[in-house]
Amino acid sequence: MKETLAVRFHQTGGTEVLKIEKLNVPSPGKGEVLIQNYAVGLNFIDTYYRTGLYQTELPSGLGFEGAGEVLEVGEDVTEFKVGDRVAYPHSPIGAYSKYRTLASHWLVKLPSSISYEEGAAMMLKGLTVQYLFRQTYDLKQGDTILFHAAAGGVGLIACQWARHLGVNLIGTVSSEEKGKLALEMGATHFINYTTEDVKQRVLELTHNQKVKVVYDSVGKSTWETSLDCLAPRGLMVSFGNASGAVTGVNLGILAQKGSLYVTRPILATHISTREKLVAASNELFDLVSRGIIKIQIGQKFPLEQIQEAHKELESRRTKGSTILIP
Ligand code: NDP
To answer: Which stretches are annotated as coiled coil (predicted)?
Structure first.
């Protein structure tokens, strides 16, 4: 048994519900390992659990992603040993913690060329881009897509992956500064939605052809505009709710706007087996190890400043990935 500091919440709500508490971490049982997180990933989904948009049993820990070192190994664990560098994109909720015991099947080995901080900043977000670009729709060189929140954590990985695939990525952002960063990372164009009309700009940039795929993690506030940016029979990939969830959709809108397709994917489906998790992770590690994707850590907070970290993310002040240091 080991003692740890961890973030917990006993009720849903604003950032004030997040508390640092002392917890006992059990010794690893069959199939489990005890790890020390050197860095933890902050993801927008964490805010959905905190506010109650997504439900979990309370009181609860928070966070899904981290990177660290194996300290102890339980019975029947063959893939990992003490001292291994590991990372995980999507563990059971509770990653905001210095020490954790968890089933080893959530972990992958972190290549030595990738730091713990990069590991925590890239697993959930990078594997999301992997499935969005390679599985939800198999993007090909020359395709043009619209990607919302292009300067965010997922966004800056998407910009670089799109450049690697030869895909033209038009990114939406809330400021010129974020737009310039998206361009630097591989976006072909940016649209500052606070000063420009997104649909109009997409028409101009595509010579009225519109785009094949829209990747929309903003949700409620962008849903209809996103559909308006799609070419006939285009694909709307609605994969997040940063502005609130999309609800009450009349399917007829897909007919009116040109026989459109819609999907609402989540990462968990795409890494639901060990084979899928390892294969997708290896593809991501390969691109990062070769420098094709450089993980952009825009912000770093000590775990104790978790309230501040959530505030920054939700108020659109962050760029790239945000990590927490326990
Ligand atoms: P980001 O770093 O991208 O932060 C969210 C960004 O969304 C903001 O920086 C902001 O960029 C933009 N945004 C637009 N409208 C709002 C709003 N009303 N409130 C807050 N932000 C807004 O976060 P992540 O990289 O962690 O995640 C990006 C998105 O992808 C999230 O919606 C997340 O839920 C989703 N996601 C979905 C997954 C899935 O499998 N379905 C997996 C991983 C992430 P700007 O200032 O430029 O507008």
So the answer is: none
